[in-house]
Amino acid sequence: VETGPRTMAAAHDLEMEVMNLNMDRAMKEELEEEKMREDEGGKESFKNKKVHRIVSKWMLPEEVRRTYLERANCLPPPVFIISISIAELAVFIYYAVWKPQKQWITLDTGILESPFIYSPEKREEAWRFISYMLVHAGVQHILGNLIMQLILGIPLEMVHKGLRVGLVYLAGVIA
């Protein structure tokens, strides 16, 4: 493989061209975002749009970003995911703090006696098919679930609204 000054110059030129393309793409995105700001005429605050842009750049491929930015808004706010998260956290705190536990990483067997947990012997208690979603086995379990459902659930709920997200969430729990 040739590594002379010509090859190095060609590699440098290619690198500069890629940088210019990336800068052009970033400028184009900024212009599109500014146009969207002007088009909406103050419906949402600039900070709100900035959050949407950050989320869309982090989570979505470039070709669907604009659709997300057009559909995402905080009206109504993402209440479903936040409510479920608070309920899960409250149940966990009850079993981890108020019920005596030897350790928090994995909760003792007291959680297995909870009226929320699913138990095949108690199938006639139909609420257990849904309420088990509130029970978590330890700190790592609850933190992992909360982080994932807040990071993924809030943007989903901003686009698809609470009813759709709630139905899919509960369908997953029942399934």
Describe this structure in words.
There is one protein chain. The chain is mainly alpha-helical. The protein is built from 6 helices and no strands. The protein has helices at residues 5-40, 46-59, 62-71, 79-98, 128-131, 139-174. The mean pLDDT is 75.
Could you name the ranges where pLDDT drops below 50 across 5 or more consecutive residues?
none
- Mean pLDDT score: 75
Task: Tell me the helix content.
Answer: 55-70%
N-to-C span: 58 Å
Approximate shape: elongated
Total of helices: 6
Which features would summarize this protein structure in a list?
175 residues; mainly alpha; 2 domains; 69% helix; 0% strand; membrane; transmembrane; Peptidase_S54_rhomboid_dom
Q: How would you concisely characterize the structure shown here?
A:
The protein has 175 residues and is an all-alpha fold. The protein has helices at residues 5-40, 46-59, 62-71, 79-98, 128-131, 139-174.
What's the structural blueprint in terms of helices and strands?
Layout: H1 5-40, H2 46-59, H3 62-71, H4 79-98, H5 128-131, H6 139-174
GO molecular function, one term: serine-type endopeptidase activity
Pfam family, one: Rhomboid
Subcellular location: Membrane
